[in-house]
Amino acid sequence: MTSDADRRAIFLEEMGLAPLWVPLAAPLAAVAPVADQLAVPPAAAAQDMPATSGKPALPVMAVDLPGVARASETVGLSGNIGADAAAITAPGATAPSAAEIERMDWTQLKAAVAGCVKCGLCRSRTRTVFGVGDEKARWLFVGEGPGRNEDLQGEPFVGPAGKLLDNMLLAMGLRRGENAYIANIVKCRPIGEDGRDRPPAPDEAAACMPYLQRQIALINPTIIVALGKTAAMSLLGLEKDTALAKLRGTVHNYSGLPLVVTYHPAYLLRKLTDKGKTWTDLCLAMKAYADA
Ligand code: URA
């Protein structure tokens, strides 16, 4: 039986502190009851960091996990239908209403997203990024929106932040194609005036929300993990800017489902010392899952 200390060590190692790729053998139900004992004080987490850890250990993140195939190798791209740029300009490109989206099945929903022109993000996208994973997953992870890599590949979280997310899943005994689904608040890449990735604007998030709501209804997960403030605020319908610190540590309610908020993996790549707090959040999520 893996001890709490072992499990925490595995998590921190898998979060990028050393290349230890050991999947958790313990079932989630066995992990959850100890969740509240696993809080890692930031100072303790910091002690575990390499002395030179001012920057994320990107070379570690960039290593493929043996035995953990990317979802595209195992389950295919869950929804990307292809050349969206053509779809935008194609005659018949549509913007279905929320009521229409609510009645869609997976095939219709994927097609609607691929051809969506509901907001300005459609003009600059290369591909829509529908979501990926097990369409019957108990665990749903929701990020912010596609970045450059995701826009090119049509799959969420494929860059360094995605490697870290895969490691987070692995530490929880999950993989993106197995019992986990990964989606975003928006399906098209938001690009800032400087050409860099940016968070979606509230109107862009609102335009895209019916697609995510339908995905959630079709998946019918047991629990949702919001990755970062944008995801948390959009899913919880918060209009007033709220610090992530205020949203963590509580099991929120999304339409009757437990929702736990944690840091966005891209933020964690910049702020190594918050990785320990993320494990605390994931333990809270595993406890909420076990209780659900
Ligand atoms: N960041 C996100 O929030 N989502 C992605 O798919 C990639 C990076």
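^ uracil complex. Residues 18-91 have pLDDT under 50 and may be disordered. The chain is about 40% helix and 10% strand.
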